[in-house]
Amino acid sequence: MHLQALPSRQDNYIWTLSDDAGNAIIVDPGESAPVLDAARSGLKPVAILLTHHHHDHIDGTAALLAQWPGLPVHGPEDARIPFALDPLGDGDRLELLGTSVHVLSVPGHTLSHIAFHLTRDGDGWLFCGDTLFSLGCGRLFEGTPDQMHASLMRLAALPDDTAVCCGHEYTLSNAAFARAVEPDNAALRDRTEEAKAMRQSGQPSVPSTLAEERRCNPFLRCGTAGVKAAVEAWSGTAPRSDIETLAALRRWKDGFVA
Ligand code: ZN
Ligand code: FE
Questions:
Q1: Which of 14, 38, 159, 174 could, after both became Cys, cross-link 135 (CB 3.0–4.6 A)?
Q2: For residue 9, which ligand has an atom nearest its CA?
Q3: Bond preceding residue 207 cis, omega within 30 of 0
Q4: How far does residue 27's CA lie from ligand 2's centre (Å)?
């Protein structure tokens, strides 16, 4: 399978996962133009996956349906999505292009946010929208820290070499915050340098792998003594649980200026 991140809008990615013939799963088309461009080079959409209702993830869908009538659209059940789709919830499974698709409910950024874990022949891809980013996580617009923590822990439990395909190119700004939290984390320093080099050469800094995120992403490291100590130093209060650590980390990040 071939994975591609199509840059869209300011800093979104529309992900495509395609087979050798160009048949492609399209994830979170926040606009249609990048997909229509790719189609001119041979990409043939066979299904659309949507992670959550935000405009920058769904707004290209109608134009793609106009171009490819009957294209199946799979996404969360949410009245704020203004077109018909096949509603999916936690634990649902489907087959697309020979991959097994497993749906996980991951509330936090929004309440109906879902993630897609695709596997085929030992390879794995996680399309996690705005829940997990490389070195960061989504803002808590609708959910609680409790929900986001549970969602992130479920994603973090997927296999090490899973490709983390997130919805935005936020890696470098997330890295600045992560480095403030864990200045001595060598894996994080290496990942930051790697991401800088990729961006400088015009490449996406993603996907990362889940193993990498577990080593470097402070929001997946709320159980570590280092992250707890950093949160305590910032807030003046020792967090009493991993959830409190995550809640404080998110507040800290929301006001963080690199
Ligand atoms: Zn969003
Ligand atoms: Fe987004």
A1: 174
A2: 2
A3: yes
A4: 12
CATH of the domain at 99: 3.60.15.10
Residue 225 in domain: no
> Is 18 a member of any domain?
yes
Separation of CA 169 and ligand 2 centre (Å): 10
Contacting residues for 74 by C-beta, under 8 A, at least 6 apart: 47, 48, 49, 50, 85, 86, 88, 94, 101
pLDDT for 258 equals 78
Regions of the chain short of the pLDDT cut 70: none
Taking the CA of 28 as reference, the closest ligand is 2
Using one digit for the tens of pLDDT, what is the confidence trace for 225-234?
Answer: 999 999 999 9
Query: For 125-178, how does the pLDDT look when each residue is reduced to its tens digit (9 = 90+)?
Result: 999 999 999 999 999 999 999 999 999 999 999 999 999 999 999 999 999 999
Residue 88 Cα, ligand 2 centroid: separation in angstroms?
Answer: 19
108 Cα to the center of ligand 1, angstroms:
10
Active site residues: 52, 54, 56-57, 109, 130, 168
Domain count, the chain: 1
User: What pTM did the predictor assign?
Assistant: 0.98
C-alpha distance across the termini of the chain, in Å: 37
Q: From CA 229, how far away is CA 165, in angstroms rounded?
A: 30
Q: Which ligand is nearest to the CA of 131?
A: 1
Interval between CA 225 and ligand 2 midpoint (Å): 31
Q: Which two tokens stand for residue 43?
A: 């990409």
